[in-house]
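tl;dr need the bound structure. longer version: we got a ligand (pyridoxal-5'-phosphate) that a collaborator sent over and nobodys looked at where it sits. i said id run it. heres the input, straight from their email, havent touched it
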Amino acid sequence: MTATDAGPAAGLAAFIAKESARFLARQPRSRELVERSRSVLAGGATSSWQIAEPQAVWISHGAGSRIFDVDGTEYSDFHGGYGVGLAGHAHPAIVAAVRDRVGRGTHFAQPTEDAVVVADELARRWGLPLWRFANSGTEATMDAVHLMRAATGRDRILKVEGCYHGHHDSVQVSVMPDPDEMGPAEAPRSVASQAGIPAAVVGLVDVVPFNDLAAVERVLAARPGEIAGMILEPLMMNAGVIHPEPGYLAGLRTLLHAHGVLLAFDEVKTGLTVGPGGVTGLSGVTPDLVCLAKAIGGGISTAALGGTAEVMGLIADGTYEQVGTFNGNPLAMAAARAMLTDVATDAAYAHLEHLRHRLATGIEEVIAAHDLPWHVVTAGAKGCIAFRADPIRDYRDFLEVDDDLGHAHWLVQHNGGVFLPPWGKIEQWLISVQHTDEDVDRFLANVETLADAVAGA
Ligand code: PLP
């Protein structure tokens, strides 16, 4: 059973309807809270990306690899709060660090010693000497874009079609462009990603496909001396999981630098999750700037911006004022310190690799046994099932992936006690350091249920 542009095939549609009904029947309390909250929370949630189909799931608490919804149902948490939860829930090292800090005051808008330890550790892992902090991935990428403009005296930036970098104006361009609007593959159009993004800002952004150096070269040739920098997820994670092809990142750095253009890696998602030093560490390609957030705070909101002495020197000398009341907040710094020194250790990465391997090979076995045209893509603790046979190289390939299978997968996993991000094919799983083989077994059993249904229909 496969989907068409007109919607899912009858068998898949019936399966989704059945799983949706089970989903709703299991969650009356969430339903009540959605309804009750609508009068005070716009859309009945605290972020638009918490609104899921068939309904948002309200959570009570988490412990280790598990979370519990308000109806009392327990799940193995592979959602990880959109990529934050590498530590799992209530990790003892994070709890101890936060508890200690809470008792000694949580905010002064003055630096605390933990910030130096965190910056030292990030410098060691990412090979970039100077750091600053912010509170979200959006703030980190916004500062990166500002800095690239400040350093070069140029206004234009280059971004990759299908990459998400948060919700500030300059990067809200061609994030998930509609096929009708996105223009030809060799010259993608820059498309505003949502309402409220000025056309003038969109007009300052050039868009290229991922894994395509020739496209970058074309833009650089067409706009000599105009482009300040390029920002990209060096391993795409807002369109499933798409690896950079060999030589792409190194080629990009060489090409951009030859034109006086800076390179910023958005490692907000890949950060600690793909390995101890992110894609930068795995690839050996060090950008001019790197943006981190999500997992580095161990569950407390924080972000970091690291860079070369040359670029970050513009902050040091006052050319660019990188500011924020909560930057380097003591509570966040205490949690980040524990995350870096006690949680994201070599032993933790060995454990994550064991689970990654079991999960990937287990799913591949199910796919092979059912002769399905799917494949698995992983990157450290992150991964996804790509519901098509051919590899995915960029956003346009990703568009070919069946949305309905992604949605069916989320429902089956949810009803089978595994919490995945509620955006089907777009998001990936995250394994935490507190996950066990039992969590992986649950996940695999649910994939088997989906495969049985799809192959048998
Ligand atoms: N960059 C990437 C790659 C992301 O995936 C996200 C969020 O999902 C962001 C930036 C924005 O981070 P935040 O939601 O913390 O602002």
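gonna send this back to them w/ a short note. The mean pLDDT is 96.
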